[in-house]
Design brief:
701 residues; alpha+beta; five-stranded mixed beta sheet; 33 helices
């Protein structure tokens, strides 16, 4: 059945008492026969919820004694109702501000009944805030966040994913797979918002760490075949409307490309922003009528009056410029062109006294001239800010004139910020200033990949390799682009060359080893695939790469090393329990190794339920039926597989074996010969087909 199953788990967890604490508290208050205040506290230290000991000012020994009590307890004028959750976690409902005399009248039996009622009631309340398809919190729960009382700096992400298929059934399955993957790789509170939008709350996490998690998330989803993953980020106190701000960020991210990202904070405080309107108009009046000029912006590192700063600037420039004004730690200087003016000379003059400038203290100087390329006069001030960022990579006090390297740096800033559209413009402008620059070509190619423009990206990477044939980065990027456009054999050769020229000390991971391992696996180069994957497994950071262990399991299975294959699949499933391919492989391995036909069949069926559109999962289900002598079921599963992928060689061989089992040797022979003619079989599969043909020939004789 292609329709996804609904999530049916009403188990309570500690996290529910943080996200849903407001409706939970209201539910408990409505159940009590007396007015009271309700809070929730943990027995163990928890960052999201208070501890019982802190709430009641108890000593550690008293907390330990209370933790062993399984029934409602009165203490310090409050009622504590402990709840044991299905995950064996324990939480207490703390009922305070109630009339002590009424509390004392409550019988032990009634309190125990209350304990049972509360647990059942909170489970029912939880169902209101859970998405039945994914098991994540839904939009109702999302809007509860603003009611949470917590001062921790947190971050929120809105993630918009795009499904590539036009078939509704396939998209629904794909949506469930994305939800499963998010739950496996994202260490935060997850929300399903509908229309292929998810939300993530990173509690007690600053924007920088959330941005890193965003990159990891996009990487995983790209590897899983997603063609669009747009993200809006916002950080701050939970009550500071970070959900609304993250949504505003997502609206901007959607304009930045299929993998656009926008931190809402960067929209307010951008490093390349213009000066205030009064100062901007003053600068514009000064350059009016000039056909050529330059502007220098001095960035200061310490507090000082604007007048003192401007006097220092004039002294550094030796009267060759005019200070227009200062604000927000920057001084703007107009440099009119005349017979004595030379931008390189001015820049060199500033750099010759940069130590003295740094003592003043000047952090850096950014200079830009007009006209440059097709920029407007006002854009010259933005170019000065970009040159300032460029100067931050040099010694303190350094002056930088806006050039192609500046555009490379500003492009990298936009790229890291998720604004791929602007990043691409920066790289193209840089190439106008210095055509053929390797770094700019590489960066432009990577940006084009973010827009799924692989053919144009290939041209960029090839242009780099014409100059430096062993450029590791260009080789990796070219191989990935070739793979995306379907030139898989070329991609395999390119990526293998990249593997051979890895620079010493270079941190290389899944961006090279995963696609190369996949290609070797697809073309039946089992030994080479295992070699690549083992090299990847020796690198740091591979511990959470379930695809590494899935591919190892698949190749060990093909090789016949079943013990290692089982270990690899089990490790993949520890990382990502809903990985249908690893489940399917493990089921087939259990049957082959005679470790349990029933469990093997169950795992293969579970894999097909998780991803019925995957022909490999259907093939392995047919494989298990075949090896357990269930011929009818094997043929049904195999036929479904061949409907999904007509030229599935492994399944074709299996169907031929089924025909042979049922005495249909002529049909089996015809099928095997057709597989050979297709030319899509691997060397191992070809040998298997030839062996079966000889077997048919011998039986016929």
């Amino acid at each position: 059945m292609l329709f996804p199953l609904l999530y049916d788990d009403d188990a309570l967890a500690i996290t529910d008492f943080f996200i849903l604490q407001v409706p939970f508290a209201h539910s408990v208050e409505a159940t009590l026969p007396i007015p009271a205040s309700v809070t929730f506290a943990t027995f163990q230290k928890n960052e999201q919820l208070p501890c019982v000991g802190d709430t009641l000012s108890l000593a550690p020994k008293q907390v330990a004694e209370l933790e062993d009590v399984a029934v409602p307890t009165r203490m310090h004028g409050v009622l504590i109702v402990p709840l044991t959750l299905e995950s064996t976690e324990r939480i207490s409902v703390v009922i305070s501000d109630a009339d002590p005399a009424l509390l004392a009248k409550m019988s032990e039996q009634w309190l125990c009944e209350l304990q049972v009622i509360l647990l059942k009631q909170l489970k029912n309340v939880r169902k209101i805030y859970i998405d039945p398809e994914t098991g994540m919190y839904n939009k109702r729960a999302l809007w509860l966040l603003k009611e949470l009382q917590h001062d921790a700096l947190s971050s929120f992400l809105f993630i918009h994913t795009g499904m590539s298929s036009r078939a509704a059934s396939v998209n629904m399955i794909r949506y469930q797979q994305v939800a499963d993957l998010l739950q496996a790789v994202v260490p935060g509170y997850l929300f399903s918002c509908g229309l292929q939008v998810f939300g993530v709350l990173f509690f007690d996490t600053a924007a920088e760490k959330a941005a890193q998690a965003c990159k990891v998330l996009q990487k995983h989803l790209k590897r899983d075949g997603m063609r669009k993953v747009q993200v809006g980020i916002a950080s701050g106190n939970i009550q500071q409307n970070i959900v609304e701000k993250a949504w505003e960020g997502l609206l901007v991210a959607e304009k930045r490309g299929p993998f656009g990202v926008c931190d809402a904070g960067s929209l307010v405080d951008h490093p390349f922003s213009l000066p205030s309107n009064p100062l901007l108009k003053k600068i514009q009046r000064r350059w009016r009528g000039y056909s050529r000029f330059a502007v220098a912006v001095f960035a200061w590192d310490a507090a000082a009056t604007n007048m003192i700063r401007e006097q220092d600037v004039l002294e550094i420039l030796q009267g060759k410029g005019e200070c227009i004004g200062s604000e927000q730690g920057r001084t703007y200087v107009f440099l009119p062109y005349n017979d004595d003016f030379s931008l390189p000379v001015i820049t060199e003059q500033l750099n010759s006294c940069k130590k003295g400038a740094h003592v003043l203290p000047v952090k850096g100087v950014g200079i830009a001239e007009w006209p440059t390329l097709g920029y407007s006069k006002t854009q010259t001030l933005v170019n000065c800010a970009k040159a300032l960022m460029h100067s931050s990579f040099l010694e303190p006090g350094s002056a930088v004139a806006f050039d192609h390297l500046t555009l490379n740096i500003s492009g990298d800033y936009y790229f890291d910020d998720g604004d791929f559209q602007t990043a691409g413009k920066e790289y193209r402008y840089g190439l106008q200033l210095l055509p053929g620059d390797i770094n700019l070509l590489n960066s432009l190619g990577v940006t084009l990949v973010e827009f799924n423009q692989y053919s144009r990206a290939v041209d960029c990477f090839k242009a780099v390799l014409l100059k430096h044939e062993d450029n590791h980065m260009a080789l990796v990027n070219l191989g990935l682009a070739q793979q995306a456009v379907g030139a898989k054999r070329d991609a395999m050769a390119t990526l293998e060359k990249a593997r051979q020229v890895i620079p010493e000390g270079e941190v290389v991971g899944g961006e090279l080893f995963l696609p190369l391992g996949r290609l070797y696996t697809e073309f039946g180069c089992t030994e080479q695939a295992i070699d690549v994957l083992l090299q990847w497994s020796s690198r740091s950071g591979c511990e959470k790469e379930f695809l590494l262990y899935r591919l190892l399991g698949k190749n060990y299975f093909t090789k016949g090393d079943y013990t290692k294959a089982i270990a690899a699949c089990q490790r993949a499933l520890r990382i990502y329990p809903q990985d249908s391919v690893s489940l399917s492989l493990l089921g087939a391995l259990y049957v082959v190794e005679k470790q349990g036909d029933d469990i093997g069949l169950r795992l293969c069926k579970q894999a097909v339920n998780l991803d019925p559109a995957n022909p490999d999962n259907l093939y392995r289900l047919a494989f298990v039926y075949f090896h357990t002598a269930k011929w009818k079921e094997a043929r049904e599963a195999a036929n479904l597989c061949l409907r999904r992928r007509r030229n599935h060689a492994e399944c074709g061989i299996l169907v031929a074996r089924l025909d042979m089992k049922q005495g249909l040797c002529v049909r089996a022979e015809r099928r095997l010969i057709q597989l050979l003619k297709n030319g899509s079989v691997t060397v191992r599969q070809q040998a298997e087909i030839e062996r079966r043909l000889k077997e048919i020939s011998a039986n016929t004789l």
